[in-house]
């Protein structure tokens, strides 16, 4: 199971980086070089991808894939909200931790009323949880 946890964390991290790259319009490194707080949240994403992978595989061994899909949705929405700051509608970029967390919460709240962002996030989350549940079932046999 250890390799499955590592592979799943890597997949989660790759999808999260893809979301960060898309929301920053491919300009993440230029933005992060100006605002180093982005690197802190990027490392937080790495750590949370590992914890999410451990927790979801444990849940899937018990047969609860719905909770796993929601965990991935929260992770991907968090990546979207944290790194949309400063890129959505050309707003000013946050410089502090509290300001960045507040703005990401605001961006996530506003995006919940659209159709596209929740549809994409929940589709990716359900697909990942379903494929991971198949992998966990194959490992238990």
From TrEMBL:
Transmembrane helix in keyword set: yes
Transmembrane segments: 5-23, 35-57, 69-89, 101-124
Membrane recorded as keyword: yes
UniProt keyword annotations, A-Z: Membrane, Transmembrane, Transmembrane helix
Identification of the protein by name: Uncharacterized protein
Species of provenance: Vibrio splendidus
């Amino acid at each position: 199971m250890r390799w499955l946890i590592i592979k799943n964390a890597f997949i989660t991290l790759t999808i999260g980086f893809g979301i960060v790259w898309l929301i920053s319009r491919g300009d993440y490194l230029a933005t992060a070089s100006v605002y180093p707080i982005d690197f802190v949240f990027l490392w937080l994403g790495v750590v949370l991808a590992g914890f999410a992978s451990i927790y979801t595989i444990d849940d899937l061994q018990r047969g609860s894939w719905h909770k796993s899909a929601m965990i991935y949705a929260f992770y991907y929405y968090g990546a979207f909200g944290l790194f949309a700051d400063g890129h959505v509608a050309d707003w000013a970029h946050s410089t502090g931790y509290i300001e960045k967390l507040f703005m990401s919460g605001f961006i996530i709240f506003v995006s919940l009323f659209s159709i596209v962002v929740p549809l994409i996030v929940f589709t990716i989350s359900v697909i990942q949880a379903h494929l991971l549940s198949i992998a966990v079932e194959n490992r238990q046999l």
